[in-house]
Amino acid sequence: MFDKSILKWLVLLCVWFAFFVSIGVYRGGYQGWYFGVWLGTQLLFPVVTWIYEKTIFKLNWKKVFTALLICLLPVLLRETLAIPGRINGDDINTAYFTVITDWRSINMFSGIPADKLKWVSQFPVPFFLFQKIFFNVFGENFDTVRRSVLPYVYIVSLGVYYIADKWWGWKAAVAAVVFYAFLAPSMYLETLGLHFVSSTAIFTVFAACVVAFLYKPDRTTAAAAGLAAGWCYLFYITSYIALGVLGVAWLAVAVKNPRDGFRLFIWSTIGAMLVLGPFVGYALGVDNYFGVRMGQVKFVPSEAISPARSRLMHLKATIRSMYTPGIGGAGGYNFGGQAFLEPVSLALLSTGLILVLYRTRGGFFVPVTLLGAFTAAAVSAWPPAFHRMSLGFPALALAMAASVHHQKKLLLNAGWWWAVAVILTYTAANLDLWKKMAYETGVNHDISLARHLTENFPDRTIRMAAFPGYVFERMYRFFPGSNRPILETDYHANLLNRFTPDEKYVYAMIYAEEFGPKFQAMDPVGKLYRYSDVYSIFAN
Length: 540
Fold this sequence. Notes:
The chain is built from 24 helices and seven strands. By secondary structure, the protein is mainly alpha-helical. Among the domains are: 132 residues, no CATH class; 95 residues, D-Maltodextrin-Binding Protein, domain 2 (3-Layer(aba) Sandwich), CATH 3.40.190. The termini are far apart. The relative contact order is 0.10. This is Glycosyltransferase RgtA/B/C/D-like domain-containing protein.
């Protein structure tokens, strides 16, 4: 139908356009149509490879529809378990920069926020773009901040189902989705609005492409794996292991057929560079924001551990935190002081890690992903940072599915009744663990303060004495109610310099032990009182 020489020219055209855009961005220029060309090459490239290979997709639509319904389970469960008013701060920060970014003029290959001093780091535009689309459809409030991660949860679920179905069949696929749905650490993080789950989602898509590539190594699957690997670098840093995993997959193919392996490696490389080209151009020519966050997240030994043995002791403690409460949880994600996994999950994982490699093509990526996720926690600040293991959630589910799939065969051909009993025990244990993790956090001080100020001082401007960009200011933007008072945030000293005792005022502040008496001295009849462990209020 198509002359293959024409298709090759189309591929070269994609490469040329990507190179043209990359050079333009590298030189510091940007035009709005660059982004359209960038997307267009990524759409054209896989279509060309599909036509070139004459790939035929035979879909069982009944099976597809059933899978789409089953994969809604994790989404519905997280929506059901959501706790009103439970936020972390990182979710609010991401949402805040999503809504304040000027999307009409932004360079789509740059980092957000534009001002590096506004947040811990900058991240690629896609990390925020899809949340912006979600907000445009559903509005901006606490509920939509939380729900904006649910599409990513659904993508993870679909990827887990596809991989397990490819490996072991639809029954194991259903089991894998259930294991993912009820995994306590996953429920803990994904009932918040944390957008690093986006990296878990795109990495799961990438893993599905790798599995498809290993089952059928051709230009179409190689191109898809390359494109997906490139996208893994456009969200959060947890998925940055993608190119390494793709390299292992390519070697697995090349060992069997070196010539085909090299040829398909070229197609994967083209796919990855079509995605990453303009971002690499921006990083090399304008500003390399990609490595900043990785430089910030580095090993910090506990003061209680001697320097000579700190790394070994930290590693041992991280391993123990997988099953021992009271060790892990850091950076505002304390997981209720619980162990990362409960005993049933640990038992399934320990057997599944071995069994997933048993006659499973591409099963290597499960232990590789888990090792990468564990390393992210083991080499970062003390105590072990459980939230940095989120990339491993799909791999955990697949390992557990491998356990029930293979063991039912090993245990005298036990039927699926045995698997159902294990899964029910697992769900009960993980729901109990999630409850201990999530409900331990209690009332959020920021939301409680916002509600107090709105209800008690509706006709006054609220002045927050902290520092510009303080998280309360960002959270307050999403606080519901059209009658919210105006909020001003500034340093304590600046607000003291502008203090006017004759007006009806209200100041919320942090560090009241130091600054409270200074405000009181400005107006002795004003009332200063402690609102919470974090905030105090001064009003007349």
